[in-house]
Specification:
S-methyl-5-thioribose-1-phosphate isomerase activity, NagB/RpiA_transferase-like, about 40% helix, alpha/beta, 2 domains, single chain, binds 5-S-methyl-1-O-phosphono-5-thio-D-ribulose, EC 5.3.1.23, IF-M1Pi, about 375 residues, Four Helix Bundle (Hemerythrin (Met), subunit A), about 20% strand, Rossmann fold, 4-stranded mixed sheet, 18 strands, 7-stranded mixed sheet, methionine biosynthesis
């Protein structure tokens, strides 16, 4: 994606700067576009834990580079395995992280230690290229859905889309998942407007999705998380489209907390609810998302405090709850497949069912 006309990916390597890894510090957006230089696997792990880098596909790609950085220190078998385990443990819900680390280990175990660093950078680079290509393909398939809706809109009225959290290019290596079709629709001149859930507690929608859409010129309106049901009741949402952190082989969808409530409201109002994902987000080993997907419990301080920019222009955090009130912070929920209209993958769209997914990915045995 372009920032002020310059194309960027969300992660890149600087060979001339010690093969360091570069990302945008997402905790500084939308107020400041800061590039973060990562030189060790500990720095990568810390960036993932603090959500300076976030979004299921991007976490996987950056963790892959984290393993490459670890191998620069020690390319032996024992160190490789323990650093891989350390990186895989940084966040529990998004399956792309585990997928990427597994893929790296499968590629690197047969390689002699002295050749592992080069092999690791090459494999991580392939993971990035594939993620960008998959998301672009998701964009093309999802675009068809928006084109269909646009055909039936009265002239001059936009197709109204609603999204939750941030599943744009900054959450992936490029393009995004849920936002890729929206970018393509806008780019080909379709009249689209996006309702952006603010996405408490971390406000990925208000901070990141709104920033992405605004930078790309896509008309959008930020709403409180609780507004979506009301808008659907009043015919102001034509399509809900979200990303996901893990999809079971049966089509259950883990995504940012609050997604399930949007799906319930969509069902009640006959609004189509679509989920966009690269195949790296499918967990073929899991059948029941509600009981089997681990849900990350994050710090209570993300609930008791909100981050923002003060009137003095300085980024700050303010407390919004009384001293002593307890807070709980489950970061994801699971939307059962029965509430999902369909899945948009790099190989096309399918129903959120095991048969649907297997029809697109017949090579999967799990
Ligand atoms: C494209 S990832 C799926 C998103 O909708 C969302 O759940 C996400 O970005 C992950 O959450 P985060 O906790 O911000 O890393």
């Amino acid at each position: 994606m372009k920032i002020n006309g310059t194309p960027y990916r969300s992660v890149w390597v600087n060979e001339k700067d010690g093969w360091s890894i570069h990302i945008f510090d997402q905790t500084r957006l939308p107020f400041s576009l800061d590039i973060l230089r990562l030189t060790t696997q500990q720095e990568v792990a810390q960036a993932i834990i603090t959500m300076q880098v976030r979004g299921a596909p991007l976490i996987g790609a950056v963790a892959a580079y984290g393993l490459a950085l670890a191998l620069r220190q020690d390319a032996g078998d024992a160190a490789m395995e323990s650093n891989a385990a350390m990186l895989a443990a940084t966040r529990p819900t998004a399956v792309n992280l585990h997928w990427a680390i597994d893929r790296m280990l499968k590629a690197l175990r047969p390689v002699a230690p002295q050749e592992r660093v080069a092999a690791a950078y090459a494999e991580a680079g392939r993971i990035c290229d594939e993620d960008a290509a998959q998301n672009e393909a998701i964009g093309r398939h999802g675009l068809e859905l928006i084109r269909e809706l646009a055909k039936n809109r009265p002239a001059g009225t936009p197709v109204n889309l609603l999204t939750h959290c941030n599943a744009g290019w900054i959450a992936t290596v490029d393009w995004g998942t849920a936002l890729a079709p929206i970018y393509m629709a806008h780019d080909e001149g379709l009249n689209v407007h996006v309702w952006v859930d603010e996405t408490r507690p971390r406000n990925q929608g208000a901070a990141l999705t709104a920033w992405e859409l605004g930078s790309h010129g896509v008309p959008h309106t930020v709403i409180a998380d609780n507004a979506g049901g009301h808008l659907m009741q009043h015919g102001q949402v034509d399509l809900v489209i979200v990303g996901t952190d893990r999809v079971t082989r049966t089509g259950d969808v883990a995504n940012k907390i609050g997604t399930y409530l949007k799906a319930l409201a969509a069902q009640d109002n006959a609004v189509p609810f679509w989920v966009a994902l690269p195949s790296t987000t499918i967990d073929w080993s899991v059948a029941n998302g509600v009981t089997e997907i681990p849900i990350e419990e994050r710090s209570a301080s993300e609930i008791t405090h909100v981050a923002g920019r003060g009137e003095d222009g300085v980024q700050t955090r303010v407390q919004i709850t009384p001293d002593g009130s307890r807070a709980a912070n489950p970061a994801f929920d699971v939307t059962p497949a029965r509430l999902v209209t369909g899945l948009i993958t790099e190989r096309g769209c399918c129903p959120a069912t095991e048969a649907g997914l297997r029809s697109l990915f017949p090579e999967q045995q799990g």
